[in-house]
Amino acid sequence: MTARQQNQIAAAGPACRRADRTRRFIARIDAHLPRLADDRARRAFLARQLEGWECRYARFIATQGASASTRDPPHAADFLLTIAALAARAAALGQTRRRAQ
Question: Percent of the chain, pLDDT > 90?
């Protein structure tokens, strides 16, 4: 990312930065998925990612948004955008989500 692009992101509002944070993470996920052996491995990987992000979001809610990062703390939208994007990729692979327990 160029310095100019970084400045544009820094000047943008918080909602734009959150979407950009999610977009960068999902771009890394999208780059990783084709490297996995098959759709079964991709579904398993996405299931682990979803479970991890759902746990992080639950912890975020339970602590009322406490974060180790005070400079750029996450917001609920960060978690929700990421979970939604991961779920969309899982659905595209035909993954069925586990039932809530």
Answer: 61
Give how many domains the chain has, as a whole number.
Answer: 1
Q: Is residue 47 part of a domain?
A: yes
C-alpha to C-alpha distance for 57 and 64, rounded to whole angstroms: 10
Nearest in space to 18 (alpha carbons), one of 87, 81, 65: 81
Helix ranges (H only) for the chain are 3-11, 14-32, 39-62, 76-92
pLDDT in tens, 46-95: 999 999 999 999 999 999 998 777 888 889 999 999 999 999 999 999 85
Q: Is residue 100 part of a domain?
A: no
- Domain membership flag for residue 24: yes
**Long-range contacts formed by 68-74: CB under 8 A, 24+ apart:** 72/17
